[in-house]
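We include this case.
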Amino acid sequence: MAFHIPFEHRHRGQPIYIGFDVPAVPRRRWNLWGFFGFGLSLFAFLTAGFLSPLALVLNLIGLRREPRGLARAGTVLSLIGCAVAGGVVLLAVNAEKDYRARQQRQLDQILNVELAERTSRTLQQAEAEFREFASVNAGQLPTWIDANMVAIKHKDGWGESLRFDVEKDGAKLRSAGPDHQFDTGDDLLLKVDGQCERSSHGEI
């Protein structure tokens, strides 16, 4: 605004100046939240994005202040970092699941080998009973029903009873195996020597 020195306040030799106030130059403002948020969002990539959530918080606060340039850029970088961190966590979780699944399969295989050996001994014990029966009955084995009454007394390694089958190639003792189901690929069999009578279950 214009100003001058009133006449009553003038002194001899004092110059008279009429002009305008020099406009104040606005001081450049700094958005510290945006500045530190942007810097942290860049550094977060060195941590596989695990510091990105903290950087995102700083950048979101920075978006509420001027200037917003760094805060906007930091927000984008922070979101990308959060996605990277989420992918790393997902990969780690899946890798852990796969590792545990492989470990469990290996343990199951080891256990099944031990149980198969136990089942083999049980089959031999049951077969010995039938062999003893046949030795005192002129080589004749019990009927299918009577034979199964003997077989079910024996449990395989997986806790299931044995089964006596009369087939075309002779009599067999059968274990259901690891899947606990008869007539599948993992059944354990042992042939029983002797003659079998015809029965309603099958013929030889």
